[in-house]
Amino acid sequence: MTGTENPTGLPHQARRRWPVAAGLWVLWIVLWGSVSPLVLVCGLVVVALAVLLFPLPPVTHRVRVRPLWAAAMAGRLLVNLVGSALTVAREALLRGPRARAAVLEAPLRVDTDLLITATAHLTAVTPGSMVLEIDREGRRVYIHALPVRDAAEAEAQRGDVAAAERWVVRALSTTRARRELRRRARRYGGGQDGEGRNGGGQDGGGRDGGRGEGRR
């Protein structure tokens, strides 16, 4: 015995996964709506089996939260939630079934599961956008966008995805990742490290307005 802890041993794995287990246990209690001894004990058993038998893969990208950028991103999230509701309501009231929408393909420049997921969530609350599919290998996201009446509005929607991606990298990534994002943007002719709906850029992607366009 050397006294060195085995990182793959059960005690180490249990300590590493306890936050996940605690969250699942709280979720179990909330779903049952009870704090009876039976619910608590059964929840512990179910959570323990789930965590040990179906472990989540390790997060390979370490998050470096930048508080100021994270707060700014949260503010943007709230603004987008309101803007999204207003955009959809406007199109429904003014155009109704004549409102034009499209399914668009937008490139992603980040290359970690964590940042891609965060970008997709932020894109989902962009006014008039809904994420349909994430192509992890191709680093692309497919969105349903409203309104899309011409190619310019399609590019503007792609620009929103690029802007969401930049916000995520600013708030949840390292300086090196930010430099890499800017380098790829310059390489592929993308937008600058700013905001707006005009600078989505292409990463070898795009299908001249999306996979398809239709009326809603």
Automatic annotation (TrEMBL):
Cited Pfam families: MNHE
Subcellular location field: Cell membrane
Chief place where the protein resides: membrane
Protein's UniProt keywords contain Cell membrane: yes
Membrane topology: Multi-pass membrane protein
Region (Disordered): 180-216
Biased composition (Basic and acidic residues): 205-216
Keywords of the record: Cell membrane, Membrane, Transmembrane, Transmembrane helix
Ranges annotated as spanning the membrane: 25-56, 68-89
Composition-biased stretches (Gly residues): 188-204
Assigned protein family: Belongs to the CPA3 antiporters (TC 2.A.63) subunit E family.
NCBIfam families: PRK08965.1-5
Protein name, UniProt field: Na+/H+ antiporter subunit E
Organism: Streptomyces glaucosporus
